[in-house]
Amino acid sequence: MKRGFLSFAILTCWIFLPLFGQTSPQDDPEHWMLAFLDVETTGLTPGFHEVVNVGIILADLEGNEKARMLLYIEPNYPERATPEALAINGYEPKLWRQMGAVPAVQAVDSIIAFYNTQANGKWILMVAYNTQFDASFLDHLFRVADKNIWTFQHYFALDVPSMAWILGYRDLEANVLAKRFDTKGTSRVPIEHHGLGCADLNLRLYRVLMKRAGRKL
Q1: Which CATH architecture has domain 32-216?
Q2: Edge-to-edge strands, sheet with 157-159
Q3: What is the mean pLDDT of residues 129-143?
Q4: What's the CA gap between 50 and 40, in Å, rounded?
Q5: I need a labelling partner for 163 at 20 to 30 A (CA). Which of 3, 5, 45, 209 fits?
């Protein structure tokens, strides 16, 4: 009984040790990075619809870019794509092959390699516009590859609209908020509307909001 309890205690400590051992972004910003991220999908339902491209920009906590990537991904069930989703991202099997689309498992391996190479062991905080949407789809993408996204990203995530909201800006649509701040929005042309373009907008908005927050302090 004691041996079994000891084994359980050791296993529990091993699982949660990274969480207790991590530093805070407030106290140790040099050991943290932000991943400005956006996914384009075949629909709105994680686990049924799939990611067709993902854009990620790694930056420090001040919003200084370090690296970026854009991946096109082959969905396993393209027939599930909704007309609304296709009208936004322009997914088409032949075009995706021309863009170098890869299977989901290979895409996950590429994201992990990107994080490992560019983050150099730093903690990664995800920043997105509709964070619950992007996080849910990314979680399911990693599950397809039998991987856990939260092994590579911190389980906390930041969202841009909340940053704007607390400063008094209540626009929920990204391009409307971008127009308010006189910054470039994302393209309305389907094939030009991809994850990296949206991640780039998230980063631009983050920088603007950081400056405006500084004025209010």
Answers
A1: 2-Layer Sandwich (3.30)
A2: 65-72, 51-59, 32-41, 123-128, 157-159
A3: 98
A4: 8
A5: 45
Q: Per-domain residue ranges for the chain?
A: 32-216
Q: Look-up: residue for tokens 């092959």?
A: 97
Distance of CA 134 to the CA centre of its chain: 6
Please state the pTM of the whole predicted model: 0.89
Reduce the DSSP state of residue 125 to 3 states and report it. Answer: strand
Per-residue tokens: 129: 């516009």
In this structure, which amino acid lies at residue 22? Answer: Q
Q: Can you spell out the DSSP letters for 83-107?
A: HHHHHHH---HHHHHHTT-B-HHHH
CA separation for the pair 174, 180 (Å, rounded): 10
In terms of residues, how long is the chain? Answer: 217
How do residues 62-75 score in pLDDT, each as one tens digit? Answer: 999 999 999 999 99
7 phi/psi in degrees, rounded to 5: -60, -40
pLDDT digits (tens, 9 = 90+) for 17-45: 444 457 899 999 999 999 999 999 999 99
